[in-house]
Amino acid sequence: MTAEPVAEPTAEPGCRWPVPPQDGYTVDDLFTLPDLPPHTELIDGSLVFVSPQRRFHAKMIELLMNGLRRTLPDDLSVEREMTVVLDRRNGPEPDLSVVRAAAITGLEQTRFQAEDVLLAIEVVSPDSEARDRDAKPRKYAAAGIPYFWLVEMADPNQHPVVRAYEIDPVNKTYALTGIHHDHLKLTAPYDIDIDVTLDALKKV
Asked: d(Cα 49, Cα 52) in Å, to the nearest integer?
């Protein structure tokens, strides 16, 4: 007596997942593979798909973007959710980036190089905690991005907290320069003054 064959699972019509190459993906693949979900990132040669975001995430990005643009010098630009090419196998997408205006090529642009970025900002989501707190800042620092902000929601009061970091150019690691609960006032990478209270977030 022989066992009945087990049917292989089949994907739904029109649903095809990309099969990774043996050595992983490259940045070129990130921009040429068809039908990737919006905001797909490349971390260590692997594609990372973004889960639906909390309202805190979207509102916090908007609050910071408005604040950054308020005092922005003419030679800089604030960009939202644009890929930053760190190396051949890493193309993360910071929630916000402050980049050199000279690096902007037009409305069809899809990426910036790490050397064009002065500040990378990540707003932590439940599915991205490890990447935002560990993997991404390490890679941003190794690529020489001078400043990094990590933004989280402090439980249980859901208050925004912004941790600001500056690179040590010798060790290529970030050092914490301040933890901001209500008022984000900095002089680098330029003069910045943003109300980051819960009330300000709710008004966005």
From this structure: 10
User: ω into residue 156 within 30 of 0, thus cis?
Assistant: yes
Q: What is the mean pLDDT of each run of 10 residues along the chain (204 residues)?
A: 41 61 87 86 87 87 98 98 96 97 97 98 87 94 98 85 96 96 96 96 94
Distance CA 140, CA 174 (A): 9
* Cross-strand pairs, 111: 83
Instruction: Give 94's DSSP letter.
Output: -
Tokens coding 62 = 């908007």
Identify the CA nearest to 122 among candidates 111, 108, 137, 109: 137
Q: Parallel, antiparallel, or unpaired: how do β-strands 76-80 and 96-100 relate?
A: antiparallel
Q: What is the pTM of this model?
A: 0.86
Two tokens at 42? 């490349």
CB atoms within 10 A of CB 77: 19
